[in-house]
Amino acid sequence: ILSIIRRLPKESPGIVVTQHMPAGFTKMFADRLNHLCGISVSEAKNGDRVQPGTALIAPGDKQMTVQKDGKGYYVRCVEGEKVSGHCPSVDVLFRSVADKVGKSSIGVILTGMGKDGAAGLLKMHEAGAFTIGQDKDSSVVYGMPKEAFELKAVTKQASLDDIPRVIVEYLNK
User: What pLDDT score was predicted for residue 29?
Assistant: First the structure.
């Protein structure tokens, strides 16, 4: 996540991230990213706005979704059951992005065990989003991106080092 976010321009569209981490660790993770990146990074709180130049990290014990109102997009962070074995779950976030943002979004699934995020990325892909899966060679564990690729949820596979370039090129089309 650091290697991607730190290489994105400060004026990038708002970013939402789900990382499989327990409560407490996501705040420390967000604070670390905030110190190392040009984009403002924080642990998400219920109602935080999704704004250009910012990244919101899902709290370690809550499910995070993207919602839309007359002012734009915001996150909802609520206690919830595990989905795909996780709280927070990537599937929960991706499904909400597919439903609320649709073709105006980019989904990225990175290395990880299991299949959390694959079904959600497929929903994003079906909604017209541009979707990226980390490739096998640069993945520590090619579980989640492999599941997404096999579901045909991935528009483009790329190495971890190449993902920021792919995102920027897509944004500049």
Answer: 98
Rounded Cα gap, residues 47 and 76, in angstroms = 6
SS (H, E, C) the chain: CHHHHCCCCCCCCCEEECCCCCCCHHHHHHHHHHHHCCCEEEECCCCCECCCCEEEECCCCCEEEEEEECCEEEEEEECCCCECCECCCHHHHHHHHHHHCHHHCEEEECCECCCCCHHHHHHHHHCCCEEEEECCCCCCCECHHHHHHHCCCCCEEECCCCHHHHHHHHHCC
Distance (Å, whole) CA 113 – CA 133: 14
Tell me which residue of 93, 101, 106 sits closest to 65, measured CA to CA.
Answer: 93
**Averaged in consecutive runs of 10 residues, what is the pLDDT profile of the chain (173 residues)?**
96 97 95 97 98 98 97 97 95 98 98 96 98 97 97 98 98 94
pLDDT at residue 144 in the model: 97
Which pLDDT score is estimated for 77?
98
Handedness of CA 55, 37, 138, 85 (dihedral sign): negative
d(CA 125, CA 145): 14
